[in-house]
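assembly run, all chains below
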Amino acid sequence: MVEFQKMEPSELKAYYADLQTEYEKIKAQGLKLDMSRGKPCAEQLDLSLGMLDMVEYKSPSGLDCRNYGCVDGLPEVKKLFAPLLGVKADQMIIGGNSSLNMMHDTIARAMLFGVTDSVVPWGRLPVVKFLCPTPGYDRHFSICELFDIEMISIEMKEDGPDLDRIQELVAEDETIKGIWCVPRYSNPTGITYSDAVVDGLARMRTKADDFRIFWDNAYAVHHLTDHPQPLENMMEACVTAGHPERVFIFSSTSKISLSGAGVAMMAASERNIAMIRKQLAVQTIGSDKLNQLRHLLFFKDEAGITKHMKKHAKIIGPKFELVFEMLQTQLAEAGIAAWNRPQGGYFINFNTMEGCAKRVVQLAAEAGVVLTPAGATYPYHQDPLDRNIRLAPTFPPLSELKKAMEVFILCNKLAALEKMIR
Amino acid sequence: MVEFQKMEPSELKAYYADLQTEYEKIKAQGLKLDMSRGKPCAEQLDLSLGMLDMVEYKSPSGLDCRNYGCVDGLPEVKKLFAPLLGVKADQMIIGGNSSLNMMHDTIARAMLFGVTDSVVPWGRLPVVKFLCPTPGYDRHFSICELFDIEMISIEMKEDGPDLDRIQELVAEDETIKGIWCVPRYSNPTGITYSDAVVDGLARMRTKADDFRIFWDNAYAVHHLTDHPQPLENMMEACVTAGHPERVFIFSSTSKISLSGAGVAMMAASERNIAMIRKQLAVQTIGSDKLNQLRHLLFFKDEAGITKHMKKHAKIIGPKFELVFEMLQTQLAEAGIAAWNRPQGGYFINFNTMEGCAKRVVQLAAEAGVVLTPAGATYPYHQDPLDRNIRLAPTFPPLSELKKAMEVFILCNKLAALEKMIR
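ok done. output:
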């Protein structure tokens, strides 16, 4: 294979015809492969099976976890997870099985009641804006859409979102109330924020007193290497900067234990937590403490979690490697695409030739391979260059992943050639 | 004992002095008893222990319940619980562990987005009012307080809330958007709504097109007798009346399986559910399906639930009987209080002599017996006659319940005598 740009028109046409024949053959196989979402595979879920047959129901302090109560979670479970978020146990709220739910509810409460330091509830303002580093997590953007929050795209750089641009915007615009951040192994770029970016976000002057950072540390311990790049502690950075109320931190064990039956958590300053706890006490009598207890007894402590995460890496590491290797050997030389090599998390960030992402996803779908919809990683599903695709290699078995990637690579070439020949 | 009203002032004084001596003796015992909340006792929770050591994780249709997905719940679990609510399975949403959470969120969504048939979100209106049959459930009232919804008390009659008054109000006032109902073994009155009340609520003309009945059928199968009074099917009544969107039905297994780790559910018309499901898909990727599966495998079918509920009745029936017997033999003749004899549910509705409820709760607390705060069963914690107390006999063991009731009865006499002597 040679670089497409260096090929003669006649060569391109001949190659395109060959690939089309290959594509038609694959289509005839009636594949049904799914690389669309960051789902753990069955083998990963098996790692936590030991959690399921728990017959214990009393917490270490003697609480009957089967009964009502304990609205913000078992104290022992807060202690277990506090190091994950880099906070004190009493800055935490343990939720149900979904951190997305906690993020949604935090925004809903802000719309209805405001946050600490709000003059009026956000929902009473004519316009509310959020900064959205892009490409980013589609479900964050969906929450903004639901609440009619205007999204402003911020470019992701090598070490996090474009801090200069952010500082400029928040200093001037009082209607900008928040920013979405996935600070470690960012979805989908895989980027971990640098200390300079963390500090900058904590320190910057914001026109809105009630500006909040939604710090979705979903991949806090989801390393693919033994020497992960450090991430500065955002809670401490905010306290040091004199903005202790600025950050809401979220995480969950969805990709540590069980994606459908994990434990979600959030953390914030004592003042923020006090306000939320009061509202929470009207919303529920407490989340499922038996499931919290399952996690406590299974993981025991931070070391238990670290050990467990190495088992995950062992399962999904080879899947990432397979994708890197195939892209490198079968696509790199063509010079029509670019991708990253993340050190953790669940995604590979892939850029097609400009204007080809939608076409690649369509071609793959027609050949039986479901990818995350093109544009999903941008606010309003609008990728301005129509090039970004999020690859999620964790769910399919290796054999299926290989097949899916063959199709994906082929579709990239086809889409590029379609453009070049025309 | 004789009727207090028939006693001479000197007799009253002498009796008061005797009771005070008795009270001081009890105080000296340093009791610590709790009758404040409708919590199942440990023996009841033990009934569902068989649910906990489940190692199965695939649903009958083969879904891996450990993974993401299935935002509105397992179809098989909807089918299991549909008869409880008297609805079709596809009119249901299965939630997390808390029906209170589903009620709160339904109101929050109505405030933010309105319901089907709303012209504007409720939160954009200058005032929103709810009808609150009283005495009623304090947590319903807390939700109204949180969202600044004005509460209008409606008197509970023998067969449900005062329908004439309700019809009069909703026909004229467009700002009345809803009513809270616990239609079976109402909290705390124990009343089951008659067919006439159910039909009337379904049929009545409401000035607001988006008026909604919040039908909290928390005690749908929580009978204390073998021949429960029937409750008309509210969903069918609304459909028949031509108001299919009028009702939101809620329930949970909190008092069937495990109060802290049960399964919550709601039901409504297909049109209502479609709107909620769309919003829910932004809020969460789905509730805990493993816990749903636990319930499915443990109860199997409607008959399994019925059989299980008889075991609950066997445990808590004697507690209710003890309370009835003690009140009858030790308090009835005094003529200073009245109470009901519910056929199911979790509470006994108790009325002290007028103006004595707060004092009784205070006296009991000082003697180490915690009761539900007086006034809790009324909007804004204001019982106009200061007489209503909700007795919750299920949680304490029989021996403790007996002791607590002795104190309670004594405090009733003391409070009445204080008033009569003065």
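Chain A has a mean pLDDT of 97.

The radius of gyration of chain A is 23 Å.

not gonna interpret more than that til we talk
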